[in-house]
Amino acid sequence: MSTRPAAFLDLPRVADARGAVSFIEGDRHVPFAIERVYYLYDVAPGQRRGAHAHRALEQLLIAVAGSFTISLDDGTTSRDVELSSPSRALYLPPFVWHELRDFSPGAVCLSLASARFDESDYFRDHAEFLAAVKVAPR
């Protein structure tokens, strides 16, 4: 189990009269090797995404368009954070339950993940997650 907490990471931002660009370079801006990239979009009003935790996978979430709220629970502390800038990312270590909600119209959530999809890495039941957190070494 990771001892790193969920945390914001400020991404490089270069801006001039033409606009702005942010970028992510492997082994420089991300605390893990990127094995999978996916994005959420066209999320209907009132819908939620996520509602799970991972045993080993690490993620970086970025609001590349619009905004959304992420509820975080590490088994001890719960909090809500908002992502609304493409130059700010949220690092999610393993063993953090997360649920995304309140997507603005046109919002796009980009996820960079440390592993390919593996259903066995998921906690999809919150009570099972909480029980695992209690016995996992910190």
Characterize the structure shown:
By secondary structure, this protein is mainly beta. The chain has a single domain, classed as Jelly Rolls (Sandwich), CATH 2.60.120.10. It has one helix and twelve strands. Strands 1-9-6-11-4 form a five-stranded antiparallel sheet, with no helix packed on it. A five-stranded antiparallel sheet has the order 8-7-10-5-12. It has a two-stranded antiparallel ribbon with strand order 2-3. β7 (68-73) and β8 (78-83) form a beta hairpin. It starts with 6 loop residues before the first strand and ends with a helix.
Offer a quick outline of the entry.
By secondary structure, the protein is mainly beta. The chain is built from 1 helix and 12 strands, in the order E-E-E-E-E-E-E-E-E-E-E-E-H.
Features:
Jelly Rolls, mainly beta, 138 residues, 5-stranded antiparallel beta sheet, 12 strands
End-to-end C-alpha gap: 7 Å
Overall geometry comes to globular
Which strand order spans the largest sheet, edge to edge or round the barrel?
A: 1-9-6-11-4
Main sheet attributes: strand count, strand direction, barrel closure: 5 strands, antiparallel
Assign the CATH topology. Answer: Jelly Rolls
Task: Give the number of DSSP strands.
Answer: 12
Q: Any guess at the CATH architecture?
A: Sandwich
